Amino acid sequence: MACFSLSSCFYFIKAYDLKKLEVKNIDYAKKFEDGVCYIKVESDGVFLVSGKEMLLSADNDDFIKTKVIYNDYHPIIGFFITLIKPLKRKFYVKNNTSFRVCFERLLEAKLTRGERNRENAYQWTNKKWQISKEEAVLRYNELYNSIKNNGYDEKNPMIVMINRKFGIKDQILQGHHRIGICKELGVKEANICFWLAPSSFDFLRFFCK
């Protein structure tokens, strides 16, 4: 039987986006939770695997409680992959299908690894990515004004990495500046896509705050 893993968080996705997905049946041994849609993310597509009936009665603008499911390795393999950062990156599964989500609910999931704002914008510890303070301010203001004047750019989704932290906790991989700006502007919805990391043992949740 295939090995599957789930996202650590729920995502509240626009029903319209979920309704467009192709339905795929999978041999999943556990029971899907009632009142939740499950989408299967693969490198070449995203599919609806549970919740079709719920979507039939949902308005297009409703935000639907959703979990991500994906093919994975055995937790022992995932555990050792997560220990070696360069190796872990080679096992990332990337998918650029974009979904509109309720931004307030995204904040509640606490996916960020640090707050980004005007004061610390684009100030990286890695010297390879460092830029001047002036350039950082200019880049931040351009992004801020774009979101303020035009709303969130659907063509530029934030990347959520499923089970990125210790193999058991979802995290934002790209989009921390957009998160901070959307929070400041009171944006109601944003766009995300899902990338996948190998999952590990559940007991590691004890070490993950």
Return residue spans where pLDDT drops below 50 for at least 5 consecutive residues: none
Strand coverage percent: 25-35%
Backbone shape: globular
Can you give the helix content as a percent range?
25-40%
Number of strands: 10
Query: Could you give the distance between the termini?
Result: 32 Å
Summed up, the helix count is 7
What's the rounded overall pLDDT mean? Answer: 91
How does this structure look, described?
The protein has one domain. It starts with a strand and ends in a 13-residue tail after the last strand. The model has no long low-confidence stretch (mean pLDDT 91). A hairpin with a 3-residue loop joins β8 and β9. α6 packs across α7. With 209 residues, the protein is α/β, with parallel strands linked by helices. It is globular, with a radius of gyration of 18 Å.
